[in-house]
Fold this protein.
Amino acid sequence: MTFEVLTWVVARVAGLTALTALSISLLTGVAIRTGVLDWLGTNRVLRSLHEYTTVLWMPLGAVHIGALLLDQTARIRLADLVVPFLVPYGGLAIGLGTLSFQLFLLVAITGLLRRRMDNQAWQWLHRLSYVAYAVLFVHSLLAGSDVGDPVVAALTWSTAGLLALLTVARVIWGRLPA
């Protein structure tokens, strides 16, 4: 296996697992507020899973980004991690990845500072995770070569659909009856 193939495989695997961790994080987060997964476990269990996967995506995202920085095809530079949409190869797809990374990082950092922030401000910043996930979803569709695989596509689309359904239910009905 060449170095180029290795970096590509590592970037793909790390990207998919980061997407999985973020999907679980968002699903458990909205499930805590809707009560729809109460049958699965207590709020404490769901909250622990939410917090764990919220932290888990960070090293996975770092590996994904690190592998892409080494990938000679993508030609991503450090500046592309700060300013989205500049990279010449796959500019929209990679720019959306940069934007979602920045939004999720903001949500994670403010999550750590929650006790020091005004609760309403924290809630609005925390809700950016939905926007970040939507941007990440489009990023994965445009840049992810594995989304063409039927199993990966089914998991990706069903997770996004379930998250959209739970979010709409939460907005319309608040906490759902158990």
Q: What stands out?
A: The mean pLDDT is 87. Residues 3-34 form the longest helix (32 residues). Residues 3-173 form one domain.
